[in-house]
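PROTEIN SPECIFICATION:
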Amino acid sequence: MLDQWCNERFDFEATFLQCLAKHVPNIYSAEMDPLVEKQEEMVQAAILYPLECYLFGEDPDVFLEKLQQSGTSQLCGKVFKGGETTYSCRDCAVDPTCVLCIDCFQNSIHKNHRYKLCKASKNSNLLMEETKDKGVFINAYSVILFGNFMEVCIAPLEVDFVTVVIQRHGRLDRCVLNMSLEHQVLQKKFFSVLTLSHALQNSECQLSEEIMEHSRRVFPSVIKYIVDMLIWEEEKELPVELTISREKVDSYYCVLFNDEHHSYDHVIYSLQRALGCELGEAQLHTTAIDKEGRRAVKAGHYASCQEAKEEIKRHSENVSQRPLHVEVLHADVMAHQKFALRLGSWLNKLMSYSSDFRQIFCQICLKEEAGSENPCFISKLMLWDARLHKGARKILHELIFSSFFMEMEYKKLFAIEFVKYYKALQKEYISDDHDRVLSVTALSVQMFTVPTLARHLIEEQNVITTITETLLEVLPEYLDKNDKFNFQGYSQDKLSRVYAVIYDLRYVLVSKPTVWTDRLRERFLEGFVSFLRILTCMQGMEEIKRQIGQHIEVDPDWEAAIAIQMQLKNILLMFQEWCACDASLHVRLSKTGAISRLHEFVSPEDFQVELLVEYPLRCLVLVAQVAAEMWRRNGLSLISQVFYYQDVKCREEMYDKDIIMLQIGASLMDPNQFLLLILQRYELADAFKKIKPTKDQDLIKQYNVLIEEMLQILIYVVGERYVPGISNVTKEDVIMREIIHLLCIEPMAHSAITKSLPENENNETGLENVIDKVATFKKPGVSGHGVYELKDECLKEFNMFFYHYTKTQHSKAEHTQKKRRKQENRDEALPPPPPPDFSPAFSNVVRILNCDVMMHILRTLLQRAVELETHLWTEAMIQMVLHLLSLGLLEEKQQLQKCPEEEVTFDFYHKATRMGSSALNAVNVLMLLEKLKRVPQLEAQKDTVNWILQMFDMVKRLREKSSLATVGATSGSEATKGDELPVISLFPSCKTQSTQDKEKAERKRKAEAARLHRQKIMAQMSALQRNFIETHKLLYENTLEAQGKDDAIMEEERYFEAIQLNFRQRLHVEQIFDLENGEYLCPLCKSLCNTVIPIVPLQAQKINSEDAEAVAQILSLARWLEIVTVRISGYSMKNAKGEKQNLPPFTNKGTGNSALEFHSILSFGVQSSAKYSSSIKEMLILFATTIYRVGLKVAPNEADSRIPVMTWSTCAFTIQCIVLLPNFRGEDTPSLLEVDMFHILVGTVLSFPSLYWEDAVDLQPSSVSSAYNHLYLFHLTTLAHIMQIIISSATESPAAHSSDNGEEAQSAQSFCRELCQHTSGIRECKVVLIEGKTRGCLYPAPYLDEYGETDPGLKRGNPLHLCQERYRKLHLLWQQHCIIEEIARSQETNQIFFGFNWQLL
């Protein structure tokens, strides 16, 4: 065959197909039980080896060796799997899809930058939305170009040449260039990218002309064969050229295909019922189908396979809505399709050898037949992608990665083909049931996120219009009769597939152009107009009607509408940024003044401002009415929508934009007309008229809530100016203000702040750029996390009615700030900070504050509070009125300080001090404020009222021409003090100010007197308590002590019984505690226990010094040892009862000395044993027997001799766990080195009084005897411990000769070295504590980011480093045997109501 291929007279394609027709059916004949290794050997020998010999012109191994020696590069080409960690540089990345694998990251300069870690998509075997193969990173003077995570660094030089350093893993590599037009020339002395690209191509070894010629003969035939077999639809026949002249064999396979509708159990059940196979065989088939996408489950004649097909479909329909996909294929068809995939893998390997192979392959795949309308090879495969099984799709996608995506020019051509068939591909994917990762549409991220390529596709292929039109074509089923979206009864799976199209639009728009061309502008506007059609369908979608009378039966679906709004949020921002970056448009608008002359081009009938604010006002009124519980019959779905409307995930394009739209309306409308429209929409016009008293509490509550909500919106419209364009602020100013108000609530962790800030299209919040300007970081301790605390100089920026506060946050922030001011001995007034000036286009908004309708609203509410005649006011309402008054006075003050009085048209002071009417009892705002201070219900607002009165006085004096000079000289200092008004220092003779000073002094005096009175009373109570205890000291020592012990014992027993009853009542919950062994959590320290140690208080005993000195002269250590030895020996012989005793040698030493009698130990002082209550004795016995029963897992036996030893050891071990670290020792080992001397000390001290027992009387050692016993026991154990230290440190000890060169030690050292390399930048860490199958918990990992927080699942992506303190705490948890205790605490807190096998983790 090789000879025929080498002979040019033969047609290569014909001979190649003949070879396949001859060998392939024989190689893949046993598909039911294939021998994979044998099949591969036959393929290599019969087909692939001859093919490679012909292609390379020599032995393949020789060719590959020459290729490596020539220095041909190998691109990284990393394809991420599901859950694999990726790295993204926050300093250099163009967008979030620019990522690196770990190897390339470690060998790049980005490891010294700010970087982020994230995970590839779940169950992903390809590069997904989070990743991108190429991108442009600009950093200082270097360009970092990612061609599948390779880098090219171009350093600025003084001469006209470029030094290119391309290095990966210590070898010279080639990088595919991907550079935007605007970045092609970084410096004037740089060569162009084309020159650089040419230099790179020359750096790679070129293939010989002979090999390239052979490639041009081989590749077309191989590619055509692969394409023909993958899209072959005939089940019984093969193409004519693959049919050989032999009798057709009646051999067929029943082939079952994978889908995402049927579960494992469904497929196994269907196979068992249809084929009668065993469970193991059905499981084997199912696993193979899920992995490869299809599997032959039966072989035989056509009729039997067809019967099996029908049976499988019938049984699968019984357990699912649709049957399994089953086909009957001829054995030869099955064999050729399988070999076609093998050839695809072979081509994939060839693509990595050389760029020439890739270019030839791409040329053939893109070549169209002359005079034919059929698509090219690669387009055929893309269009057939949705009908291919999983295994074929994987190989096809890998082949595209290794060929087209490695060559920039052909990547562009592939992208053109992709866009050409984009609509068809997306519709096929939406109808398909496989995950997006297995669809060719997932490759869009590889093309649309490349800036240069995206511009080209916009200009030449009109890709924005193509994507938006695709959206419009796949969404008609969700349109109602009014052409508005209605997602009731939608399919979650299908709609989530539509989101993929929205992702593609986001990818195309992710990089804004810096250079606009007429063609680009034209195509962009076409796509934008098409996108507006989508927004038209969304405007007013799923309108709701207030339910009156009867509650709705079923909550409507609302998630889809919110979800699609969230998907489009960033796209809306991107379109705005694209429009904003077109400088030529702004220049033309500025020169012509078109904005200011808008009324000349649009008639008043067509341009109605009321229509602009109608929908935003409806939404805000709806929010207010929901808060007033007027929509409670509409169910929970509406409450959820209102929550998302104001939530940080959606508010930028919902709530915030509605406030801006109201500000636009306020700037264009007459202020009185605007406020009347607000009152009308809130249905509050009647509420501000003369009202009749009503006893309907629900109606009063509704009115009050609506008024509060309306006043809040008015505050936002007038006061919220931190929006670029509304005022002269930047995005950094906006973020800083958000952070300031978050930290005014309480100090927060970095993660908590990040969650509360909106993300941009790059999933960044901008927090790191500004956080250090407004806050200081407080590092964490051993537990907890680090927090940011607001700097003192930023506290003056606090605005109590910040529009992103929830009601809970508002209350908490107000409480925190008032508490802070009180601690600083300042008043509790919280006036608003001076807001930035509106931009000229919005300057008319402030007129709302001093219009007649506003003054009427403010006077009406203040008058109601003063007169106390109606319930239509609340303290919150008055607080908002005071805030509006503060805003008006601050606005007028700022204008007066900047301009002469005659130029200031804002006259809030005059309007507020003008009488409300001509009636005799008419009042103005200033008069009402004076009366308001005397309202007892508003005592908390008195400081704010005083502040406002001071502001009125200040504005009045600023209005007076005589004091303009003085005020002007001090205005600078006044502006810097914020809410600390300089009125007191400016006007010391002011009557109002002196009155306020007196009131403050009086309040302070009363508070101090109350404090001293409380202090005096507490001192008296303490003295009485001490006198009572001293007087009844004896009673406390004797009576209460015993009573306390008994009560504690009884309380412990009752607590344990309650715990047992509580957990036994949980029928279907896994038990947190081992009740059989008496486990429970201590109610005080939350430690896991199964008994309690009865601690008998030490009785104070007096020691006579003369007796002690006399005993010391007689009882030396040696004499004491002899006496104790005799006593022990006597007890041993008495218990022996004639039996032969194997006594220790030291006990026999003194038995023959008649001078030392058995009772001599009693001669140094004895006393009667202490008397304890029966309950204490019972508790001691219970404690000892519990240790015996649980420790040895035997039945209770109070007479067992092991009970005392186990009891003493338990006490010693408990003390060690509390105070020391346990010294673990082996069991049943007599070696001195392995004896725990602390256990010995505790045991001997507790057991030594037993040597004083006598048959006739209960005795115990006297105080003097006990003291010497304890002293000598301590001496002995200390000496023994010193001997342990000496022996273990001696060079002759066996431990010193232990070898460290064993295989186990070397493995441990190697593991430690490997671990140390990664602990400085660990990717993810989880700690799972497990005790048995059903008891376990997650424990905070010791790896923290720079903010002292863990990051489960890499949600934030910050680099993690080992925290030594946390690791020590974890180590201590293990050493002190507290793991089970920690598990019990966690499970009790989390209340797990289902069983979970923790050992499966």
Remarks:
- The chain has a mean pLDDT of 78.
- The first strand starts at residue 85 and ends at 89.
- The chain is about 55% helix and 5% strand.
